[in-house]
Amino acid sequence: MLPQAEPTWTLNEAAHLLNRAGFGGNPEEIKAFHALGRVKAVDSLLATDEPADAFPLPTWANREQAMADARKRFEERRELQRSTRGMSEEKAEKIRRDARREEQQESRRHALEGQGWWFRRMAQTKYPLREKMTLFWHDHFATSVQKVRQPILLIMQNELFREHAFGSFRDLTQGVLMDPAMMLYLDTQSSRKGKPNENFAREVMELFTLGEGNYTEQDIREAARAFTGYSLNRFTGKVTHTKRQWDESPKTIFGKTGPFDGKQVIDMIFEKPEAAPFIARKIWEFFVYENPSETAVDALAEILRKSDYRTAPLLREIFLSKEFYAEASIRSQIKSPVQYIIELLKQLEIDNPPTGFPITAQQQLGQVLFMPPNVAGWDWGQAWINTNTLLTRYNLAGFLTKGAETGGKSMGEEQMKTPGMAPGPKRMGRAWQGPDYEKIAPRPLREDPEKLVDSLIFRFFQGPIPAKARGSFIEYAAAKKGVVFTDKETAELCHLILSTPYYQLC
Q1: Which of 410, 404, 406 shows the shortest CA–CA distance to 432?
Q2: CA angle 259-260-263, nearest 5°?
Q3: Residues pairing with 231 in the sheet
Q4: pLDDT tens-digit profile of 119-159?
Q5: pLDDT tens across 39-74, in order?
Q6: Which listed residue, of 91, 157, 262, 475, carries a Cα 20 to 30 Å from 165's Cα?
């Protein structure tokens, strides 16, 4: 076990836990979370009793509807083939090209709707840790709609990650083997006896379970033969193992020989001692800080082994540990774009963000849901920040705090085009007026610049900031006060506070 946190439980510690194990909250949410006490607060994060219909999927993402749509597209293609017979090749190709374009446009619309659905779920759920772990698994077992091209399969994979958020890492890896999106992303569906594809065999060892140096090239080649024969039915999304396409001959993997199939190889991977510390370290670095001590990693790995690789006991141990609340942990992580956007909306108490804001902000900041850059997922930490993205964060904060008229360009004018995505509506956010400042800074509070600034510091930082920065905010507020401190001055003060390096950390 790790050394446990002190019995005392501060408001700042509660905010830290809510930031890291979720996506932050406004002052009232933090206070209610703190009132639970440390242990009950952690246990509440690990709850999974959210109603199944709390966040209904888009109609097209319903499995029955998706199957019906797939059959319809198949029939439309057959009809297209029949209708273009006898036409000139030039005319037939134009008709086919128009049909493909319509399908692509529909797929892009569905991708946007799916991304919006998950973003709303992360922002509004009462069980944020489950969504945070779903995001972790999405980055760990990375697949992208740009290659998969079927948004319904990314939704199905997302549900798989959510189902196993606190469950067995081994069971989830077995599920990923049979996951349609992963099959298309790493080409497992085309891996056949005599022509094995090594993509999944390599990544499942290097990136998903063991890490470099804990397997051999021979292990990969032999495992690739074991991963043959898996087939995807694109109408139903069902994956089956076809024995006639599977290489049933003996393979030697990790020093063992036998006619292994894919499921058996994954079981063998989890018999290796490197699997538990590999994922324990990665989970620690996601929630706490980089480069943990080997003592901590070993302790967490042992918890995983004893719990049959379930992550719930591991997460509970981390969030109740002394080190999670240590100075090295608090405000030491650069917020990922998704974290930054959701925290900002929560702290400004914006329940309904401007149309198109979430996806456009993701595009501009470099983290679009369902679109990690490669099989290794996103680069985290300092990779999130450069001169351009830092300025973009300041501009996004200005747009949300000051509104479209005073905050500069509309979100539509600031859009960046991401390959494989439909563009958002032009001039999006033009009508945005800003948040409700009566909630964020009630009128009586505005009479005292020092109290106003301290209230906003707790709202946005949940802890102390350097005295020089605090002093500059107070000086600014005092200079702007005048006879009446209006919403306009409040918005400018909020934007000033949010346009600091300190706000990029959680």
Answers
A1: 404
A2: 155
A3: 240
A4: 999 999 999 999 999 999 999 999 999 999 999 999 999 99
A5: 999 999 999 999 988 999 999 998 888 888 888 888
A6: 262
